[in-house]
Design brief:
The chain has 566 residues and is an all-alpha fold. Helix content is 74%, strand content 2%. The protein is globular, with a radius of gyration of 26 Å.
């Protein structure tokens, strides 16, 4: 990929400086080239644009509603809280669900004589040229309408500046966060620290959400407006509420909020530039390589990590050991495991305790102020089991062109899928067990351990079977970059659609467990674990058996699909 700013390109004379517009033109050109001969990518792009426009129209009327109704009481709440949710989602969702469209991989600019400022501003400008940004701009334009109708053209003009600066904050903040997290995941020394910090964050999100839910349940609109005004003075809500401040006669507050936004954007740009340089180099200090112990031995013996020494020296054992190493060392795969650890902890807590609230007793632990039931617990465990297996919906995309080695070796599809399931389960099943234990302790129902773990295993096994098919029929290529959250143009829609299909179909496979929880009552507490484990293992093996035949027939097509295009 060439940068169209070389002095030789423009002929003799002084070289023209590189501007942000060059990065925008380059992204548009690369995007157009990626669409050539790829009808499915064009279809996904059009589909994503349609849904983006649909959400944009709904968001526009939501943000414009206070102005259209002439009610300034709700204007600050819609601006600060609604805009804050948009900003928060823009920062978090790329880490959990969508990824980031990194058509212009920063690593490809590493050898070019570009200053850090030029590279950061150019990549930021290119990142603004996307469907989500346009859709968000159209939706947030409703804030301009509200500010203009309540405070005239000065408030509307300030709202325009606030919306534009807020969008810049969202894009830069998202890129800074994913780039820094990607650099952190490449370093094994900080990987464990990252897991601990994320676990602490996950443990805090549930109680914070429950506390907010309980507070809002009894809060009146005046108190909620007070919360909105507090949020409006944070970077998440400041840019969106600046126009409302002018409409209410506080021009000084609007200026202060715009200055706060500008300082935040500058800080995020500085943070992004630091992590971006590390991403361009593509390395992280991991210390000296450990000395090889014992005799040289054979390559087969060295392939098996010590914890997996019990695996047989067969094709299945070798494939399982290799996949285990990939899940441990590949930053993109580690990111998915950490996401599961985070979401798997606080989502069940919110489902079971979020509606009723809870209190803490030093002797009895957590005590729900409402009531939960085995059916609700089973539903929450179904969600976690589905989420655990959805990571494999594009498991061959993680391999990319390296999957050619399996094709050349002539590995059967059934053996391939069984080994991948086994390697992934070595990491995931202990995590599911830990989640089940945490849930019964939080609920104060230790006798429900069989119910929670059985539901998890059954749903997880069904998800493995479903994703075996999806990973073959719906695979897509991933960019060759050090950022584990980067996606090709249009691949974000593909990932979202594939994830949705995987979660829905996997949840359907868990319906028998939910029916049994409803019909069998207390007896199901003892039967859930053995039945759920047997059901999960049986469905997973059946899925590998049936999908293996499909994989045998589609190996060449699958390899071509997951191989990144340059």
């Amino acid at each position: 990929m060439a940068v169209p700013v070389s002095p030789a390109v423009d002929g003799p004379g002084p070289a023209r400086p590189v501007r942000a517009r060059h990065f925008v033109r380059l992204k548009l050109r690369v995007t157009a080239n990626n669409f050539r001969g790829q009808g499915w990518r064009i279809a996904l792009f059009v589909l994503g644009a349609f849904f983006g426009l649909w959400f944009a129209v709904g968001g526009f009327f939501l943000f414009a509603a206070p102005g259209l109704a002439g009610n300034d009481q709700y204007a600050i709440m819609v601006a600060a809280l609604g805009g804050g949710l948009v900003a928060l989602g823009w920062l978090i969702l790329p880490l959990v669900f969508f990824g980031v469209d990194e058509t212009l991989d920063p690593a490809r600019f590493a050898l070019l004589p570009l200053t850090r400022r030029t590279l950061v501003t150019g990549l930021a400008a290119a990142a603004l040229v996307s469907v989500p940004t346009v859709a968000a701009l159209l939706a947030l334009a409703g804030l301009v309408v509200t500010a203009g109708m309540l405070g005239g053209w000065p408030a509307g003009l300030v709202a325009v500046v606030g919306v534009l600066s807020g969008l810049l904050l969202c894009v830069v903040g998202s890129r800074a966060l994913t780039s820094a997290f990607a650099s952190m995941l490449r370093s094994r020394r900080v990987r464990d620290l990252a897991a601990v910090l994320l676990a602490v964050l996950a443990a805090l999100l549930g109680p914070v959400q429950i506390a907010l839910t309980n507070s809002l349940r009894d809060a009146d609109w005046d108190r909620l407006a007070g919360v909105a005004r507090v949020v409006g003075w944070t970077p998440l809500g400041a840019p969106w509420s600046a126009g409302i401040e002018v409409a209410e006669g506080r021009a000084w507050a609007a200026l202060a909020k715009l200055l706060l936004t500008a300082v935040t954007v500058a800080g995020l740009l500085l943070w992004w530039s630091r992590s971006l340089e590390s991403a361009m180099v593509g390395t992280a200090t991991a210390g000296p390589a450990p000395a090889r112990r014992g005799p040289a031995g054979s390559a087969v013996t060295q392939l098996f990590p010590r914890p997996l020494g019990w695996l047989g020296r067969t094709r299945f054992g070798a494939l399982t050991a290799r996949e285990c190493r990939y899940w441990w060392r590949d930053a993109r795969r580690r990111a998915n495991l950490i996401t599961l650890a985070v979401v798997g902890v606080f989502v069940p807590v919110m489902i079971n305790l979020g509606g009723a609230g809870f209190s803490f007793d030093g002797e009895q632990g957590f005590d729900s102020l409402g009531s939960t039931s085995p059916v609700i617990v089973s539903v929450s465990m179904v969600f976690v089991g589905v989420l655990a297996a959805v990571t494999l919906a594009n498991q061959f995309g993680f391999d990319g062109s390296a999957y050619a080695a399996n094709v050349v070796a002539g590995i059967s599809g059934r053996l391939e899928l069984q080994a991948r399931m086994a390697a992934f389960s070595i990491y995931v099943v202990p995590m599911l067990g830990a989640i089940a234990v945490v849930m019964v302790l939080v609920l104060g129902e230790p006798g429900w351990i069989g119910l929670t773990l059985g539901s998890l295993l059954a749903t997880y096994g069904g998800g493995l079977a479903v994703n075996s098919y999806l990973s073959i029929l719906g695979a897509y290529s991933l960019p060759e970059t050090s950022n584990p959250f980067a996606m090709n143009t249009g691949a974000g829609v593909a990932r979202s659609f594939l994830t949705l299909v995987s979660m829905v179909v996997s949840a359907v496979t868990a319906v028998p467990m939910l029916v049994a929880a409803v019909l069998l009552g207390d007896a199901w507490h003892w039967l859930a674990l053995p039945v759920g484990a047997a059901y999960g293992v049986g469905v997973a093996l059946l899925g590998a058996y049936l999908a293996g035949d499909v994989l045998d027939r589609r190996m060449p097509e699958l390899l071509a699909t997951v191989t990144p295009r340059r």
